[in-house]
Amino acid sequence: MKLIAHLEELLYKAQTSPVQLKLKVRDWRIVVHETQLTSLGIKDSAPGSVYTPPSYHQGESGEVVIIWEDGRLSRANVQAVSGKNAQSGQEQLQEWYQAAYEDPDGREIPAPEAIPLVAVEDRAVQKILAGEDEILFEQLSRLLKDRPEQAEMQASIQAAWGYRHVRNSKGLAVSYQESQYALSYSFDSLVGGGFAKRRLISEEEWVKTWQQTLAYYQAMQQEGAPIGPQTTVVFSPGVVDSFLGQFIVPNFVGQSILEGQSAYRVEHFEKQEQVFNEGLTLVVDPLRPFELGSYLVTSEGIAAERTILVQKGVLKTPFLRVKDAHRWGGKPTALPQGTSGLYLKHDQEGSWPEVLVGIEDGILILSVLGMHTQNSTAGEYSLSAPQSLRIHNGKIVGKTDVKLSGNFFKDLKSPDTRFTKSELETKPYLLVKTGLQTL
User: Fold this and answer.
1) Which helix (H) or strand (E) element contains residue 422?
2) 327 φ, ψ (degrees, to nearest 5)
3) DSSP helix/strand/coil, 121
4) The CATH number of the domain where 138 resides is what?
5) pLDDT of 51
6) Is 4 in contact with 165 (CB distance < 8 Å)?
7) Residue 86 sits in the same domain as residue 182
8) Which of 224, 91, 194 is nearest to 426 (CA)?
9) 297 phi and psi, to 5 degrees?
10) pLDDT (tens digit per residue) in 271-329
11) Based on the domain organization, do 151 and 226 belong to the same domain?
12) Could you read off the pLDDT of 192-203 as tens digits, one per residue?
């Protein structure tokens, strides 16, 4: 029996005709993922080595939340188990009940809502998992064939396909198919490129990503001029993503705000305080087709919808799960998956090629070291950036190692910060005035 069917039957019986009265279930919800994953890679310019052999994995896993008749709550991760290691239904219920705890704000199971149509499956990925995987080996061969002759390459390609099932005791029953594809590669561990969405990469995207990575690698072979007091700092989309993950996502979690563990307080949202540049908007949007952060329904059964966190620089709402929304006195919101599904925009955005041409003296920060050690609530950062490229008269001309110091909240609030759209990434480039020194 499939995991989702087993869990549904088990909890329905425990709700309607329990074997033991203490194991009677009042309400419940389930989310189960059925996944097939295939991957292959390159290690030190060698494909299919002992470190990166082609692999295939298939499995089922999920989460169960139970509100017992006595009002206590249990939460458990589950996965498909068969044979002698499988527990009986009563054993599972008993184990979950023993781990029950008090959580008055966590007892709500939402009623079903209208589910939006969102493109989260690519049939081309499904064919790969069905055995038509030649395209992945062709892509791997292409990477090796086209790489710079002197460069040592690392690469990974993954494709996944499966089903997502969400059920609850209020009548919600949603099942849908979803796919994922991810490509990443690097030259000499200096620069890299990649692509990750719910669909395969197009030929145009492949070429543009490769050409950009190659151009950055070639620039890395030359020493750039020293930085000066007027040098403009440009955060690449990858670095912006890291900043969002370290400083924005943790501070917009409803639970953290309610418990005083965020840079913001409830009253900041109630007063709709201006915290960022007046042209800046921050949105969680799970409705964009084929993006990794897109979905039809959350694991709690909340239908996907676009949620504005910051509009024109003004605080609107944090991320609110069902429990947090109950405490907040509002509705549950859309939820990002890490930084996937989180979009940062500005009213006045240029395109990166156009903006690059206008930079006389700049440095492009491709990656930073030490991000995980920074204080999320303070917003302050002090980071080394050994993979940085010097910009002179609108052209990328060489490598310079630098150290950055500043405050990301102030960067987002400053009228001097410029936002530039990336052709290849969902996150923008940021041109900021921040502390800069040569390493």
Assistant:
1) none
2) -70, -35
3) coil
4) 3.30.2290.10
5) 76
6) yes
7) yes
8) 194
9) -155, 145
10) 999 999 999 999 999 999 999 999 999 999 999 999 999 999 999 999 999 999 999 99
11) no
12) 999 999 999 999
Give the number of other Cβ atoms within 10 Å of residue 368's Cβ. 24
Find out whether 420 and 432 touch, Cβ atoms under 8 Å. Answer: no
**CB-count burial class (<10 Å; 0-12, 13-18, 19+) for 340:** middle
Distance between CA atoms of 90 and 103, rounded to whole angstroms?
A: 24
Say if residue 72 is in the same domain as residue 181: yes
Same domain, 114 and 198: yes
Is 381 inside a domain boundary? yes
Answer yes or no: do 141 and 267 share one domain: no
* Beta-bridge mates of residue 184: 156, 194
How far apart CA 14 and CA 373 sit, in angstroms, is 46
Range of the domain at 190: 3-211
Residue that the structure tokens 């069902």 belong to: 322
| pLDDT score, position 89 | 86
Tokens of 24: 């009677």
The total domain count for the chain is 3
Strand ranges in 285-341 using DSSP code E only, listed in sequence order: 307-311, 314-315
Q: Which distant-in-sequence residues (6+ apart) come within 8 Å of 165 by Cβ?
A: 4, 30, 31, 32, 33, 34, 62, 174, 175
Secondary structure in 3-state letters for 52-107? CCCEEEEEEEEEEEEEECCCCEEEEEEECCCHHHCCCHHHHHHHHHHCCECCHHHC
CA separation for the pair 333, 254 (Å, rounded): 10
- Tokens of residue 48, six digits: 């299919």
For residues 224 and 389, give the distance between their C-alpha atoms in angstroms, rounded to a whole number.
7
Rounded to whole angstroms, how far apart are CA atoms 112 and 388?
A: 49
Give the three-state DSSP class for 251: helix
* 9 within some domain: yes
Residues 266 and 398 both lie in one domain: no
According to DSSP, residue 132 is labeled: -
Phi, psi (degrees; rounded to nearest 5) at 23: -95, 15
* Whether residues 260 and 139 fall in one domain: no
Out of 285, 314, 337, a domain closes at 337
CB 226 within 8 A of CB 356: no
Residue 217 in any domain: the answer is no
